[in-house]
Design goal:
67 residues, mainly alpha, 1 helix, 73% helix, 0% strand, elongated
């Protein structure tokens, strides 16, 4: 059976791990928010570009002949 000191050490260790993981999740949440905004901005920019081009298909949007 574990002593009180051992249990306190384990709890302290687990608390530290939970705090570290919480920091990682918070950082990733911020990165996801930033990346989501960038993707949205790029999609809007591409939609505007396509609208300005009259909706024509560009070479990059065409399927290769082997499809």
């Amino acid at each position: 059976m574990a002593t009180d000191t051992e249990l306190e050490e384990k709890i302290a260790h687990l608390t530290r791990i939970v705090d570290d993981l919480s920091d990682v999740v918070a950082r990733q949440e911020g990165e996801l928010r930033l990346l989501t905004n960038r993707v949205r901005m790029l999609m809007e920019r591409e939609a505007e570009r396509e609208a300005d081009a009259g909706g024509s298909v560009t070479i990059g949007d065409q399927r290769p002949p082997h499809y």
